[in-house]
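Bench notes, afternoon.
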Amino acid sequence: MKRRWIHAAFGTVAICCAAWAAYGGMRLRHAGQVEQAIAAVTQAPGVAQAANAGADGGRGGDEPPQVQLARAMALSKAGAYDAAGRLYNGLIHEGRLDGIGLAALFDLGNMYLREGSGGDGEARAVRSLAMIGEAKARYRMALRAAPDDWDARYNLERALWLAPETQSAPTLPDVKEQHNIKLRDPQSQDLP
């Protein structure tokens, strides 16, 4: 009887270990597939092909979020900012920012900052301020979700340095006006 219980316990432990190993194997296989897909995305021959692949906003197919993030990064580096922005925004989920969402938020802020910090001309300057403002908003969202993200904090400081935010303080009276006290004339006629 005792031997039967020992064999049953050993069999249960063996089955649990086999299930754990199978789960690890499936995760390893999935990671290999994701790595191959990322390699295929990052070695895309041109912007047109990458833009066409990401034209659906990153929601088409059963593409893992890691591959969508890599595709958005490749589009951003290639200069296809609109398609990259759609992919990044597709990865950012409202209310729930996981690791991929935070990375997409940070990279989207970086893309806006890069786009806003370059160029000359009056029309470009107005667009630059808008892009830098968008970058600041993305960095602030990332810092709300992960306050210890020093990269986002540094980039927010850099964006604030490029386009400082000034709040108009209420105008205070001059110091001389604050201390200038007018006394009544002792011969005042308005007293009873």
